């Protein structure tokens, strides 16, 4: 299922022009990684004034502002259709709740492009992971869709701390090509063909990180949080097996490692969001004060609704759903949850 990247690329794919859609922390970290190996990238940033400021400062004024860029190597545009037209490979790094609105502006076809999803979320209302959404609504062949995931916080990439990424794609040659572009002295890459499992796990680990944050806010200790996380990986395993049956080793870093770093890291916005809820913030207040998207909030509702058809036992997810969407008291819900874990 998973192999180390041997950084070989076929001749046909070497000259692919790469474009980034999105301007957040993860998009900025990806740009930093790509520009180590790529001579030039295209980058769609919606706000033209932000582009001007980026060019003036040589860094993103809003995200990871400590990272310096050679802006001569970046073709910026506030017009999404221009970047799509100028790129053969598009890296999608937009929060899942906004993807539909962003892509509605498109006047260019996506089904001739290679699309790499760096989104660890799910499309609200549609209840589709990104690859399925692109395939169903934009007719992008699954062999042209890849996902990148793993225990890799943007902030640590900015600091060039050793990080690990997995590229998932049905087309293994394409997966190796993408991995080669992102391999450097501080980023190690692997490849996998488990696109669906990687995407679902990426969605669910955000939900369980909210649960860990809630417990931290409620003053539960490390002992309980460890039990919570060990039960969480079991829930991910059961749900993936029911929804997308396939052999996968959930102990690999793209699954378990991503869950652990999101559950425990100070950089985790989902953990931060949950911590605020546990301390008594309302959902709306926590969202406003964070000023960032906690993907797990949207993922909780989507996975809960998908699971109505599968009826997989997901007590932790159900607990988070009841707190976020049914306005149950966190202390009461978590107290009841303690009797269901092992």
Summarize, please.
Helix content is 51%, strand content 13%. It has 342 residues and is α/β, with parallel strands linked by helices.
Q: How many structural domains does the protein architecture include?
A: 2
- The H-and-E topology, N to C, reads as EHEHEHEHEHEEEHEHEHEHHHHHHHH
| Helix vs. strand class | alpha/beta
CATH architectural name of the largest domain: 3-Layer(aba) Sandwich
Cα-to-Cα separation, first versus last residue = 29 Å
Low confidence ranges: 6-12
CATH top level class name of the largest domain: Alpha Beta
E-strand count: 11
Instruction: Figure out the total of helices.
Output: 16
The value of Rg in angstroms is: 20 Å
Shape: globular
> Biggest sheet: strands side by side, in what order?
1-11-10-9-6-5-2-3-4
Explain what the structure shows:
- With 342 residues, this protein is an alpha/beta fold.
- The protein has two domains: 14-193, 3-Layer(aba) Sandwich (Rossmann fold); 197-337, N-(1-d-carboxylethyl)-l-norvaline Dehydrogenase, domain 2 (Orthogonal Bundle).
- Helix content is 51%, strand content 13%.
- It contains 16 helices and eleven strands.
- The strands form two sheets. The chain has a nine-stranded mixed sheet with strand order 1-11-10-9-6-5-2-3-4, sandwiched between helices. Strands 7-8 form a two-stranded antiparallel sheet.
- α8 links the parallel β10 (163-169) and β11.
- It is globular.
- It starts with a strand and ends in a 5-residue tail after the last helix.
